[in-house]
Request: fold
Amino acid sequence: MTQGLQFDSQGRLKHFLTIEGLSRRTILEILDTAESFISVGQREIKKVPLLRGKTVVNLFFEASTRTRTTFEIAAKRLSADVINLAISTSSTSKGETLLDTVRNLEAMHTELFVVRHSLAGAAHLIASHVPPHVHIINAGDGAHAHPTQAMLDVFTIRSHKGEFEKLKVAIVGDILHSRVARSQIQALNALGAAEVRVIAPKTLLPTAVERLRVVPYSDMRRGLEDVDVIMMLRLQRERMRGALIPSEQEYFRVYGLTPERLARAKPDAIVMHPGPMNRGLEIDSAVADGSQSVILPQVTNGIAVRMAIMALILGPPAEVRPAARRGTRATA
Amino acid sequence: MSLLVRGGHLVDPANRINGKRDLYIDGRGFVAGVGSAPDDFKPRRVIEADGLVVCPGLVDLRARLREPGLEYKATLESELAAAVAAGITTLCCPPDTNPVIDTPAMAQMIQSRAWRYGLAFIHPLGALTRGLQGQQLTDMESLDEAGCVAFTNALKPITDSLVMRRAMEYAASFDLTVFLHSEDPWLKGVGCCHEGEVGMRLGLPGIPEAAETAGVARDLALIDQTRVRAHFCGLSTARAVQMLGEAQRRGLPVTADVTAHHLHLTEHDLEGFNTQAHVLPPLRSRRDRDALRRALKGGAIGAICSDHQPHEPDAKLAPFSDSEPGISALETLLPLTLKLVDEKLLALPEAVALVTSRPADILGIDAGRLSVGSTADVCVFDPNERWTLTGQAIVSRGHNSPFLGRELKGRATHTIVGGKIVYERER
Reply:
């Protein structure tokens, strides 16, 4: 169902809502396109004219600075006009439905909405109801998906580790509430990663998590053994209801990533975090700022990856897109 | 007007009739004869039913009609018209109207309004607690006098187990039936779908199977204690069905129903955030659905109901967890029940019993059978007619159905209530 929604009749990416069901080929096409955009950020004039005359609306129903800013920079580097709207979900209590809000903005002749919402399926709902010339990128919906974050993560992994087939990846923390984890798992599986582990107490692991094709661990030490990539997740305290963890101290004691625990992984393992980080809660500063950390490169890569996705969705066809052609790797 | 329904395949499970018989209805609205004509019977109207099935009018244990209080979703008039178009001649409306059916005046008002339309019969379900607040008991005996056939707190949980015990004890004092939606509200939390593979993948907050297990376990303990006659509404899990069967074997006075959609759909119907499949209790796993089917076949579950909940279109145009649960289901009750015959789970008389005599027996009302002298509530349907559920085809004000666009088999052609033809479809 989602696949039918994400692609147009020519098989071109129309919306970007979830990684689920995307082929390895599509994911690699995005990564390769992103690689061609990395250089744009290093130029003196950081702009390409791919989306000149197009209007992009960052429609954020949930607070976010980092993601919104990277989307904004990405759209501006593609020469689009960008409007940022932070709409508290409570504004719908004035009576306007989510779809009415979008329809009003759509009436202002916008082409692309970047949508973040606290409820799973919100971007999907909007994509199902916009006219054909309007496109949607999901910038995070509830605990469902955060596909652009997953793309920048796999981009970062590829740039440090190369091929995925030999990689063991551990995702640590609040898997239950994490849209990043769900999208990340799907991306890694689609790219053929050797093993994806999730590490958390059982209270933070969804029931039937194995059905996502991951190996669950509740023992942090065992879970980290011999992994190539460690992805730490933020403890989403704002989403937690009920007694999920006894205390933050206990959580850090058992699941915090310290230099000692990091030593269980491969010596050249990289440490990632989608941010914002809670130092001393899920990660020790010595690790966050250490030599194995690639947390800041993740942020930088986020702009190129988001440029790539916007360009593929909204830009001219690939054959007239010079920036995307340069430096393209062979796709599978 | 005297009526002859001629040449149809008469299925009346309560009277063990399953074959070609004529049905004679006298001018006062009662069944005058089955198979052979009563003396001096001269029909003023003949319905030719060759190739059609003639059965008692359907009895639906739970249908929200939205009036009073939610008329923007539907009205008694619109939903009664939908009911008779679907062969349903008797239905129960739960008390979660606005205001709640917790006074005799409200119960009488609904019945008198329904009477005015002269379509299907409505039996209100009275509230177990005032305002469904779960604190003070209602005047159940007075509500019974006013026509309430059973008592329930609808989907509002009675969290205080002592209040629930008192409600059951009080109902048992007058031999009244309580309808239970058993679920532990704490385990349910903010859940909006089955806690399983699909909900987990979609990132939706789940309702674990244990929520129903814990709710049913508490209520069974209280039924054991109070010996109230109890009916479990809309069971959805294999474990709950197993507990029901054990309780019945121990001799507890418990019955149960299942909704027609829970017999056909599973959590997989939520794929793509399909809000039309957003129902409570949630659509569960295939294993659960199969257990519900086995319990239906084995007799532990005694009725199939629609659990009709019509909504305005906007109610479903929201992110899944914000959309309103419920299906507009009157018009799919008959075809979804007949599908179980096509799928060889049930014989036709078994299927018909589950939507006629057996729900009537649960309610203790005189309906769901075509005995000579009983009220002539009749459904005539074409078992082989294939039709597609579309917005145009739905009579109900609510078009919210996961079966929209799907081909169904079996459709009412005539509905007779109290001897009067209240629905007749051009063929």
Observations:
- Chain A touches chain B through 30 residues (CB under 8 Å).
- The two ends of chain A are 25 Å apart (CA to CA).
- The beta strands of chain A are 55-60, 81-86, 112-117, 135-141, 168-172, 195-199, 215-217, 229-232, 270-272.
- Residues 323-332 of chain A have pLDDT under 50 and may be disordered.
